[in-house]
Design brief:
The complex is a heterodimer.
Chain A (H helix, E strand, L loop, with lengths): L5 E4 L5 E2 L14 E4 L5 E9 L11 E8 L4 E6 L12 E12 L2 E10 L1
Chain B lengths: L3 E8 L10 H16 L8 E5 L3 H5 L4 H8 L6 E5 L5 H14 L6 E8 L5 H9 L14 H16 L3 H15 L13 H6 L3 H4 L2 E3 L2 E2 L8 E10 H7 L5 E10 L14 H14 L8 E3 L5 H10 L8 H6 L16 H5 L3 H16 L14 E8 L4 E9 L3
Classes of the chains: A mainly beta, B alpha/beta.
Chain lengths: ~110, ~400
Amino acid sequence: MINITAYKCKKCGRIHYPRHERCLSCKHREFEEIKPEGNAKLLTFTQIFNLPWGFDERFLIIGVAQFENGVKAMGQIKAEDAADLHTGMPLTASWEPVRYVQGEPVYGLKFAPM
Amino acid sequence: MRDVAVIGVGMIPFGRRDQDTLMDMLAYASMKALDDAGLGDKGVDALYVGNMGAGILQHQSSIASALVDRLSLLPAAAEAIENGPASGGSAVKNGVLAVASGYYDVVLVAGGEKMREVTGWRATDFVATMTHPEVEYPYGITLPGMAGMFTRLYMEKYGLTREMLVEVAIKNQKMGALNPYAHVEMMITKEGIYESPHSVVNNPPAADPLHLYDACPVSDGAAALVLCPLEMAAKLTKNVPVLVAGFGQATDTHTLQERDDPTDLKAVTLAAQQAFERAKLKPEDIHVAELHDAFTVLEIAESEHVGFFKKGEGGKAVLAGKTRLGGKLPINVSGGLKARGHPVGATGVAQVVDIVWQLRHELPEDRQVKNAQNGLTVNFGGFGNNVVCFILRRVEQ
């Protein structure tokens, strides 16, 4: 189960992730809590080789994808090379450890090409 | 509101300054600015310090209180301003507002950062702390990574090419090699970083599609300036006063993913529009600009978003030589962040200092934009979520 909560404005329908106190479009304050649904479409991505403190990998591929119900989110992408990816491609999503802090896993979104 | 002038500027060479503490660097740059203004033993009413990470990198807080004491400027008001990589620009803006309001007459603004004290891993992590702590940072995203994702979209939408990015890097490192304050004083060639088989080794991918030479270095450094009401400038200094003709600041969503069009740097456009409106000038009136080229793509994108070129035309302008010294609109004659370096809290102040030197016509011929009257700066915080823009004008006496 993907442990993300997005927020759909009850007035204009704009979907927010992360949370805002007021709608970015219409300033309305009431939201319906929704979960990402279905597969995702890759919007953009990068392969980074100079990683921040806390990662032991040789590189990370990170992207932003949009789920079928409109939720957009960043996540790590399971691929060997950014050259294997292209914007618009379909992805599956899973909830897995994305880093470890003092030996404890931190869970987040991982995408994989379908 | 009163007109505000820059009457003194100072900078120390950027780079790796193991011998200096953050406070040393801020103090050296500040004394240069005070002496450049010719204030002698006169005090200032207030001090604003732009800094992003002393609390994280140096384990030091209240740096403005420390600096005002170090400079023997007591009992001047003093405070630090943190706005990520736009901390320097925000510090200048707060200084300008303080003088413009009539509350203070003479204000010192300093910006500094000491980033080489920690490992590259730590420095990258420090800069990444400006990303969203829940929906971005945990994934290991870095600022080069954000720029890489932005570049991919810009290439797809506007036909931006790697060749255009390479030309920005070559241009800015050429100018950096002439700048005694620059961190990177090494010229590069198209063959070396793009066209030859060796370029794969010389210029490896850093954040695809960006490569090593698309990014600015991690730097130590500081810069400072002195502000006063324009009407008082002639009494306080012999320097040609440079008017802060206008400024603008605007914000955008914290995360790239929530922007309707992630290639649209709205905060840059809005900040520039405010600055032009206040200065009563248009983009075609600008003779020299310092844009926030933390990544080569940003120089091109910002040049379009402030209105110098239409969307999709900025890269072509670089290829045509329009943004070189001697071109129609020289951009980043200092070498920009790409070569001068990017000690994050110093950058916004350093950009203004470089434009002031240009407008005072004090630079050597190989770096001076001839007869420059109006200059513009863009200081880009976060990944475009908090942007400060200044327009400066030479005041003939």
